[in-house]
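Case study 2.
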Amino acid sequence: MSQRASVYVMGVAVLSVLASVQLPGAESTADSVHEACGAHQGRCVTVKPPNLPYGPAAGKFKVPRGPDGKPDFTGVYAGPGFTHQVGPNDTEAPVIRSYDAKKMSPLTALGEKELFRPTSGDLHIDDPIGLCLPYGFTSQIMVPYAQQWIQSPKYLVIRHEFMNNFSRVIPLDGRPHAKDIDLTWGGDSVGHWDGDVLVIDTVGLKEWWFDNPHPKGSLWHSDALHVIERVKWVGPRVVSYDVTMDDPKYFTQPWTEQTYMILHPTWNLLEYVCNENDRCSQGHCTDSDVQKAK
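Prediction:
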C-alpha cells in the first residue's frame, strides 16, 4: 500500500418508509463543488465530485455481480473522508470532514443542549480516542482511513483500517433486527436489496461521538440513533453512498447526506493498534525519535 502512503501519510418496515420519503438534505450537492461545514462552527472543507467517470459519463458500465446475481461491493475503498480525486499510482488524499450542517434538520430542545459538547477537560468527552476507546460507527463513516468490504450472498463484512479491530458483519437476507439489542459502538446492522441498491439499517448504538474531532469540542448522537445507508455502483470504481440519520432525541426529523466511495484496486488495510507506539496516551504527548533528533 505504499502508493497510498505517498499522499495519505427498527425493522424493515420502518426502513422502507424512511427510504421512500424526501428527507431534509436529500437534494443532491454531491455532484457539484461545494463547501461542507460541521455544525457549531466546525471545520469546513471543499468537496468535489469524483474525478473518475460515473453516472452518464461512465457509459455502458457493467456492475460487478456476485454468484447470486446481486451487485458485488467487495474491495478496498476510500470513503467520504477522502477527496475522491484519484491521482497517479492509485493515490487519493484524506480530509478531516464532518457531516454538513446544511444537511441537518432542526434540532430538538434536547439536541440544542446535547449535540455539541464544548471542550471540558475530560477526555471521555473531549477525545475518547486518546483513551483508546472505539471511534464508533457514525464517526467511522467520515474517518480519513480506508475500509475493506468483503461480500458473500449471505453476509457483508466491513473492516475499518482505523482501529481495525472494529468490523461490521451485516446479514443480507432481509431479516429484522434482533430483539433486546445491547447498545454498542457499532450497533446492530441488517441489510436488504432494493433492486441494485444495498440498504443497510443500523440501530442499537450507544450515545457517542457523531463525527470527526471538532475544533471547539465534539458532536454527539443519542442512543436512539437509527442510520440507513444506501450504496449503489454508479461507475467503474465509483459507488454512491447516501446516509440517513434519524435521531428523534436530537433532530426533529431524519436527514440525508449524499457522498461517494472510491474503489482502490491496489490498496490493502494497514494494521492499526491503538496502544502500540502511543506517544499521546491520555493527551500527554512525547516526541518521536525523529522529533528528538531535531
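Residues 12-20 form the longest helix (9 residues).
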